[in-house]
Amino acid sequence: MAQGAALKTAIAEATATTDRCPRNGEAGIDMASSHANGIVAGITAALRADGHCGLDIALRAPRQPQLDAHTIRLSFDRDTSRWDCRTDPARRFVGSSCAAPNLSIGR
Fold it and tell me: Of 67, 65, 72, 11, which Cα lies nearest the Cα of 39?
């Protein structure tokens, strides 16, 4: 998911300079629906309740019920500069960068 990779970089850079999590419409991160492409319905950037920066990638795949209306959740820990990936679709249906819950996938 190229959109997610580019947004991860934008979030990491923004937090390094502003010490806060950017949202959609800030730090070069477009509105959620502007990221719609293929099975991606939209990507939302926001501060999570745990204090980490988050990206929620909403999936849209009507012919693939194992993916349709599910979400991939990426969280950025500003203290460690690491990303964590959680997903509600079965792991076999998402890329290797989110192959296990709590997988740190680097920056």
Answer: 67
